[in-house]
Every structure is written in C-alpha cells, then in structure tokens.
Design goal:
197 residues, alpha+beta, 6-stranded mixed sheet, 3-stranded antiparallel sheet
Length: 197
C-alpha cells in the first residue's frame, strides 16, 4: 500500500509501531506499546472522521486489511459492525491482539475454559468478565484468550492491531457456549483497504 496519500495520524502510528518492533525485547512488550499507540490513534479526530468512510465488514466475516508490515509481520485491521451484532466466541491462536473503538459501543466478553480438554470437539466455558467498550478505549487480548465482541445499539468502528496475521494462515478456536461445540476455523477474510487523508 502506498504511503503517499496515507492519513498522517495513521502513518505516524505505523512508524511508531515499527520502532517498537525494532527496539523492544519481546512480543508482549511490543504489543503493550502497541496498545498505548493504538489508544492514542483511536482518540485522534482525523482517524475518527476517516472511519465513517469505511465499507461494512459483513457482520465480522471480513476485516479491512489496513496495513501488514513487510519486515515485522504485525497487522492493522479495521472493522465496521452493525447495530446489535452478536459476535462469535473465539480465540486468535498464538497471536496477541489489541482492539480499540473509534466510534460506537461494544461489549467484550472473556471466557475461561473449564473442561479437561479430553473430548475432541468439545470445550466447556465459563464467562469470566464483561467489559464495556466505548470510543477511545483499547483492550489487549493475549494469545489463546477466549472472547467475543458484541455490538451496541448503533454501528461501531474498530481498529485491531495483531502481532501477526493469523486469519487464513493459522486455525483459530471457535466455541459455542451452550452446546460446548468447539472447532478450529480460518477466521475472517482480509480485504485490502487504504486509509487516506
């Protein structure tokens, strides 16, 4: 993707992430710094205005691929969720994920697996916590953490920083709370999209 017309706030974010990936000692430190940088970005007025021009992401089946770093592999996705969206319970395999809201509200549910992993295709879950996401707020989700995002009464616009792209490359967990059904899936499709100023 070309940097010539990239929104300046987004370009600064990318360059600051590249510095973090170059200088920090491990992936957890990089993602904690990435969370802080994402916090600044989701509060940027130019970024918040830009998201209103993003296409719908089909109920979570697609992610806008805003940036994938050619040297360090981290990925920035955008999502547009419709009102009252009920997100699937899932994990992101071994990848770290920071999720920030630009506009709208969402609820992040975190789950804990409580079975002994002995039954193929089965996972018993308990709801661990529920966090209300509002514009300017960022959540950091560690590897294999089981969670679900649910939409509020209106559209929501989010930015996702991933330590690497897993969708389409690595199978991720998908869970059904009621039945305990568990499977590994590809995750959403990445659709290239450029944020311009």
């Amino acid at each position: 993707m070309s940097t010539a017309n990239r929104l300046p706030a987004f370009e600064r974010f990318i360059q600051d992430l590249r510095t973090a990936w170059q200088t920090l000692p491990d992936i957890e430190a990089k993602m904690r710094r990435g969370r802080d940088l994402l916090q600044r970005l989701v509060n940027d007025e130019s970024m918040r205005a830009s998201c209103k021009r993003w296409p719908d992401t089909d109920g979570g089946r697609r992610n806008l691929l805003l940036y994938e770093d050619p040297d360090y592999g981290f990925v920035v996705n955008g999502v547009v969720h419709g009102a009252n969206r009920k997100g699937a319970i899932h994990d992101h395999a071994h990848a770290w994920t920071a999720y920030g809201l630009l506009e709208g509200t969402e609820t992040l549910e975190r789950y804990r697996r409580v079975d002994d992993h002995s039954r193929e295709g089965y996972a018993k879950l308990e709801l661990e916590s529920t966090t209300q996401g509002t514009p300017g707020k960022v959540d950091l989700v560690p590897p294999f953490d089981i969670h679900a995002e649910h939409g509020g009464p209106g559209k929501s616009y989010g930015l996702i920083l991933r330590s690497e792209r897993v969708a389409g490359k690595v199978l991720q967990g998908n869970y059904d709370f009621e039945s305990g059904y568990y499977r590994r899936v590809d995750g959403p499709t990445n659709v290239p999209f450029e944020i311009t100023g």
